[in-house]
Amino acid sequence: MKAVALTRHLPVDDPQALLDVDLPKPEPLGHDLLVAVKAVSVNPIDTKLRGPKGKGGEQEESSPRVLGFDASGVVEAVGPDVTLFKPGDEVYYAGDITRSGSNAEYQRVDERIVGPKPTSLSFAEAAALPLTTITAYEAFFERLGIDPDGANKGESLMIVGAAGGVGSIGIQLAKAAGLEVIATASREETTRWVKELGADHVVNHREPMVEQVRALDFEHVDHIAIFNDMGHWDAAVELIRPQGGIVSIDDTEQPMPMAGLKTKAASLHWEFMFARPMFKTPDMVEQHRLLNRVAREVDAGRLRTTLETVLSPINAENVLKAHALIETGTARGKVVVETFA
């Protein structure tokens, strides 16, 4: 089968950073689906895993390594323990960081982290959703404990880094739950984008944020999601309400003073959507249920895809172009590569 893989960890401007390779077609086992991949979305984690490692930089892989997480496609075959899907079903999913990735014609993926593709979306539109949607959904409704059905209606949520992939779907999920959303964006283009997605207020995260939020007549914010780096930690601690919660998705080596959080009896949560498949947690099937719910909301017109850029076909050149666009840090929405030639 055709696949896009890396053999050395190289900078994005090196044409050898990703290669077109031919690999054996996998066989589904246990709860596996074998999916014929139609479209893949590129995320920041792809670029981090591909790039140079440590001081030596060009670390070599012992065999070609296929990256890629977000995908949509058609079930080709199923393992003996599969009960949720059958061959011919159209699906979407975000994959498992411990397994071979989606940048291949065929991929094995556990049915418990797969959902039925929204019928109203193309494969490219659907591939833009899973990783960011699962991340935002788990961050808000599982880590912060917000009720997705509106029990927290009227409470405030600040999304730092709101124009990216996670923030773009996060705004929609938060508005559907009845929250008042303060989004951060730093450019005219991204400010328009977050407003279009439903943000109630926009502040510039490249300027002092506390003053901007207070000028909106918020002394404190009920919930805060940091969907970029932790450089805004101090502002988040100052703004979070007593007994409120902050959730972050990115690791950091920056100092994170906790005194202000302690005196407010506020909480810090980490969201990592790969935790369930990585550790095979007993509630792994919750990601299947989550994606089912999101598909229904999309088909009902209450959520929209965050796809912004499509490249075709799926090959090393185009996947590397997508990596380069992500690494600029200026992309809004999602970048998708579709169709094997």
From TrEMBL:
Domain Enoyl reductase (ER) residue range list: 17-337
Xref: SUPFAM superfamilies: GroES-like, NAD(P)-binding Rossmann-fold domains
Species of provenance: Halomonas piscis
Protein family: Belongs to the zinc-containing alcohol dehydrogenase family. Quinone oxidoreductase subfamily.
Name listed for the protein in its UniProt record: Zinc-type alcohol dehydrogenase-like protein
Keywords, ordered alphabetically: Metal-binding, NADP, Oxidoreductase, Zinc
Entry annotated with the keyword Repressor: no
